[in-house]
Amino acid sequence: MAGLLARIRAYSRTPQGRRTVESVRRAAADPRKRAQARSLLSRLRGGRRH
Q1: C-alpha to C-alpha distances, 2 to 5, 6, 19, 22, 37, nearest whole angstrom
Q2: pLDDT digits (tens, 9 = 90+) for 4-17
């Protein structure tokens, strides 16, 4: 697991990684995107059955 975290950390320091992080931050600040993410997570966890 530590290897995976180290690779993620290294990626986040690259220019492409910084763009990705900034994009995720913008999406996280958008209330509609947050609601979509919450809905998706609840479905993945089995919170809502369809």
Answers
A1: 5, 6, 23, 24, 26
A2: 999 999 999 999 99
Q: State the Cα–Cα distance between residues 31 and 39, nearest whole angstrom.
A: 12
What span, in angstroms and rounded, lies between the C-alpha atoms of 30 and 46?
Answer: 24
pTM as predicted: 0.58
Going by the DSSP 8-state scheme, the letter that residue 41 receives in this structure is: H
Helix (H, G, I), strand (E, B) or coil at 50: coil
Q: From CA 2, how far away is CA 46, in angstroms rounded?
A: 28
The whole-angstrom separation of Cα 6 and Cα 23 is: 21
Cα torsion 1, 3, 13, 23: sign: negative
